[in-house]
Amino acid sequence: MTTRKASTPPPPSPAPIDNAGRTPSAKAKKLALDIAGFLGANQTEDLAILDVAGPIAIVDYFVIGTVRSTRQAQAVARELDQEVKDVRGKRKRNQAGMESDESNWVLLDFDDVVVHLLLPEARAYYDLESLWADVPRLAVPPPTEGKQRTTAERRSKHIQIFPSEPGS
Does some domain include residue 149? Predict the structure, then answer.
């Protein structure tokens, strides 16, 4: 007679996080729209703003754009980071693709908004819009004014691409 050892049941899996009802903050929406306007003014093409607040707990929007070269992506990313710092008082949290001249994707993480700047072939290959096909989209605003000013001109004349936040 063999004795059978009672097996212990596996631990219950954690309950999935339900973000389906989560809506992005108004501040995050404004930042995403301002970033898209800035990118449009800096010759970033095929802009898309994806509301990923439902499926992703740590970010509200993806702003995706196509650039023509790594050099353009890196220059736009540096300038965007400075503009956001001037308005929000803080820089991006993380970045990727800035360290190599061979990069085909530059990413900037501004907490609630993540910016993806991709070369055309990388954009087609990764196809983020299809990956996130079921999330809502925001209409892309027209490019912001002042796109041809240099960083030094904006600083010396106190010109900002993004309008100032109320109360600042």
Answer: no
Q: Is the pTM of this model over 0.85?
A: no
Residue 68 domain boundaries: 26-142
Structure tokens at 118: 């991709």
Count Cβ atoms below 10 Å from residue 60 Cβ, excluding itself: 23
Which amino acid does the sequence have at 70? T
- The domain total for the chain is 1
Beta bridge partners of 96: 107
> What CATH number has the domain bearing residue 36?
3.30.460.10
pLDDT bracket for residue 159 (50, 70, 90): very low
Q: Which residues pair with 117 in a beta bridge?
A: 65, 106
CB 145 within 8 A of CB 159: no
Dihedral of CA atoms 95, 117, 157, 159 in degrees, nearest 10, equals -100
For residue 5, give both structure tokens: 């050892």
pLDDT(4) > 80: no
pLDDT at 100: 74
Pairing of strands 61-66, 113-118: parallel
